[in-house]
Amino acid sequence: MPRVFIASRNAVERAALHALIAELNTRVVGEAADWDMLLTLSPKVKPDLIVIDWNVMVDVQTSTMSPLREVCPAAAVVILMSRLDARQQPAETAGADILINKDDRSDRLVENLRCAIDGIRSATPGERQLKNNRLPKQASV
Question: What's the CATH number where 84 sits?
Fold first, then answer.
């Protein structure tokens, strides 16, 4: 069962994501409200997938996933964004494996998360980072 870590500033959004992700036969192993908490807590629970709201990164003005990749090298990273087209390039440059538009209808958001999780399930442990277009960079437009 894939292990998922959620990071969002918004407690209601974290709770909603937790409920959605739990329905996808996964286990939510942790949550963080900010970048520092994400970097501190996520390596302790060794997630397979980290779902991050873009605002967590914007808050600290980070331009790279490098610190997260150092502490969780095997985890794939999904970034949730609103207004995907306007902000896509900075997230791709930051090193996201998959971008998902969080403004989509909930059924489409769930389907995009399911695709990301299915990519984790089908990968061997050494292939868990979804690099080299194993999954599309943009799961939703």
Answer: 3.40.50.2300
Task: Say if 63 falls within a structural domain.
Answer: yes
- Asked, for residue 111, whether it belongs to a domain, the answer is yes
Contact 24, 113 (CB under 8 A): yes
**Domain boundaries, position 90:** 3-127
CA dist 2 and 120 (Å) reads 7
Number of domains within the chain: 1
pLDDT digits (tens, 9 = 90+) for 32-59: 999 999 999 999 999 999 999 888 876 6
Share of the chain above pLDDT 70, in %: 72
Q: Are 42 and 50 in contact (CB under 8 A)?
A: yes
DSSP result, 28-89: EEEEESSHHHHHHHHHHH--SEEEEEHHHHHHHT---SHHHHHH-TT-EEEEEESSHHHHHH
The identity of residue 14, as a single letter, is R
Residues 6+ apart with CB under 8 A from 95: 64, 65, 66, 69, 77
Q: What is the pLDDT of residues 71-86, one digit of tens each?
A: 999 898 888 887 654 5
**Residue 135: inside a domain, yes or no?**
no
